[in-house]
Design a protein that fits this description.
By secondary structure, this protein is of the alpha+beta class. Helices cover about 30% and strands about 25% of the residues. The radius of gyration is 14 Å and the shape is globular.
Length: about 100
Amino acid sequence: MKKEWYLLVKLALRGQVPDVPFARACVLYERHCGTRRPDRDNLVSGFKWIQDGLVLAGLLEDDREENIYAYHGWHPASKKDKRVTVSIVPILTPTDPP
């Protein structure tokens, strides 16, 4: 399953990967599906393979807790409008190149 998610993530990135993976980042994961809000554990665990795919694709350096500040959201959506969106903002430190 990990390989399939990596391929989907890579396809979604359309080659837009930085020369050097982000060492730290804020990541907003949003699930748009169904009419019933999932419980917190299911919501968060549902993004694991996507996060692993971001690391394998070279966008994120590592997915350890100290590297990723993750936020998880849910929005109701019909079956035809179900999707996942991921927004990533790198966290730069004064020693990072521009």
